[in-house]
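[step 3/7] inverse_fold.run input=structure_tokens len=480
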């Protein structure tokens, strides 16, 4: 039988072999093509955990020092089955680091795994040497100390693996954790906070009948997890909650809605709070994207419940992602102010560039596969640029899995604004400060960003990590 793990390994090595798993994805393969049968998933069997918050091992006047051991562990993802996973600190997903604007975070990462790793702080404005570049790896048995200055606005970030050709497997196997930056302004707003501010790390998986967590094509990943558990339930009070949604899937988009179709309030994106809240009924999110929303569960009353569902679910999986059960009343003095934040100014764009993303015949940007020795873009520090990014793939036949023809364009170092989509001014889908933008087949966007505040080597790439690890990534050097 085809050993998909070996094929993926071959794909990771690049070249023609890289095409195999993606070509196969064009087929409408039945569940089970990955090997043994998938474990039957009974929804709402687990209570949803909230990832633990990591405590610093030391504090100085200006910094908090953390220590994380990257290690293998077992996780109960599907109820009653135990899966071997790769973790930060033994947790699946990893522990949450809570940072405060203006106070440095220093993380000593110790690699006790048998694979190379590189830790990238997604959404972080950090020096190049602390960015976790693909070739800047930590060998098994090695360690590295990353410094994060946190001179940036409040936002929901995450840290995850970025070792070249391995990031998709490593992240899929569990190498991801949250990193939340708060600031004085955000804390003054009166938004739901404390236990009413809850992250939801949403990702797909494939759990075999024996519990094996198997990295395979997204059309065979019909387990959907929130905070590491398959389709859990979460007990809430009848009041407002701030929910920080992450699409931490390696290769899939999700279309999230409340199953009763009701509206919720979006307050933030990748780069933190919006200027003003917007009402939404659905969120389309691709790998790497974040959305912060406020949901008022008082409308369901104690004893009521509502399901968060994925209308982009596979035909072989259930649409339910998470059930909120309203179990008690609670005092609610939180508010969602009509003015949430102010975006940094967007200066005139003086440089234009364009990028074409292709899945076939190879995963490329502008026809090239990532080469760490090749500088694809040289940007001048402080320059504001306008980038046109195009997804060159055509839609696939209706009813067939289409994850492989979507792209999720991500820039390191800086946030951008989406100005146009398909030649039109953007709507709520593209609101806010972003570091990741979703491109369906044939779509194009114009995005604008200012390069800085640091010089050095950085990256832009697709955040469908099967694509980036296959080479859909470019090098940008920011120069003085
Ligand atoms: Cu892509």
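[step 3/7] decode complete -> sequence:
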């Amino acid at each position: 039988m085809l050993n998909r793990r070996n094929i993926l390994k071959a794909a990771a090595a690049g070249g023609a072999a890289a095409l195999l798993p993606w070509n196969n994805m064009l087929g409408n393969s039945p569940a089970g093509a990955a090997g043994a049968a998938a474990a039957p998933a009974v929804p709402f069997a687990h209570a949803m955990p909230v990832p633990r918050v990591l405590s610093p091992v030391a504090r100085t006047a200006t910094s908090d020092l953390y220590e994380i051991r990257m290690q293998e562990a077992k996780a109960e993802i599907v109820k009653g089955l135990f899966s071997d996973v790769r973790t930060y600190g033994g947790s699946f997903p990893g522990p949450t680091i809570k940072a405060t604007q203006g106070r440095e975070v220093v993380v000593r990462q110790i690699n006790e795994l048998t694979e190379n790793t590189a830790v990238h702080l997604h959404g972080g404005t950090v020096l190049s040497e602390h960015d976790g570049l693909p070739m800047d790896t930590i060998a098994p048995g090695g360690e590295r100390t990353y410094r994060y200055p946190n001179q940036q606005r409040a936002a929901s970030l995450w840290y995850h693996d970025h070792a070249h050709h391995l990031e998709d497997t490593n992240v899929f196997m569990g190498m991801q954790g949250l990193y939340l930056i708060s600031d004085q302004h955000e804390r003054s707003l009166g938004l739901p906070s404390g236990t009413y501010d809850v992250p939801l790390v949403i990702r797909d998986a494939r759990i075999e009948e024996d519990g094996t967590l198997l990295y395979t094509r997204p059309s065979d990943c019909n387990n959907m997890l929130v905070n590491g558990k398959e389709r859990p339930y979460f007990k809430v009070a009848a009041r407002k909650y701030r929910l920080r949604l992450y699409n931490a899937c390696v290769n899939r988009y999700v279309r999230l809605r409340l199953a009763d179709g009701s509206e919720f309030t979006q307050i933030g994106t990748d780069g933190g709070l919006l200027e003003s809240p917007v009402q939404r009924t659905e969120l389309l999110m691709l790998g790497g994207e974040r959305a912060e929303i406020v949901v008022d569960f008082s409308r369901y009353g104690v004893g009521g419940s509502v399901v968060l569902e994925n209308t982009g679910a596979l035909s072989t999986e259930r649409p339910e992602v998470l059930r909120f059960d309203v179990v008690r009343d609670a005092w609610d003095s939180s508010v969602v102010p009509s003015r949430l934040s102010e975006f940094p100014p967007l200066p005139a764009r003086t440089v234009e560039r364009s990028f074409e993303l292709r899945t076939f015949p190879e995963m490329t940007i502008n026809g090239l596969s990532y080469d760490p020795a090749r500088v694809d873009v040289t940007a001048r520090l402080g320059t504001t640029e306008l980038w046109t990014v195009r997804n060159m793939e055509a839609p696939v036949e209706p009813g067939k899995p289409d994850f492989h023809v979507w792209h999720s364009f991500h820039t390191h170092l800086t946030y951008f604004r989406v100005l146009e989509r398909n030649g039109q001014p953007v709507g709520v889908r593209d609101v806010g400060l972003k570091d990741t933008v979703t491109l369906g087949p044939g779509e194009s966007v114009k995005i604008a960003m200012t390069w800085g505040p640091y010089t050095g080597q950085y990256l832009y790439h697709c955040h469908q990590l099967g694509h980036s690890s296959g080479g859909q990534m470019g090098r940008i050097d920011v120069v003085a």
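[step 4/7] annotate
Residues 267 and 277 are 5 Å apart (CA to CA).
Confidence is low (pLDDT under 50) at residues 1-34.
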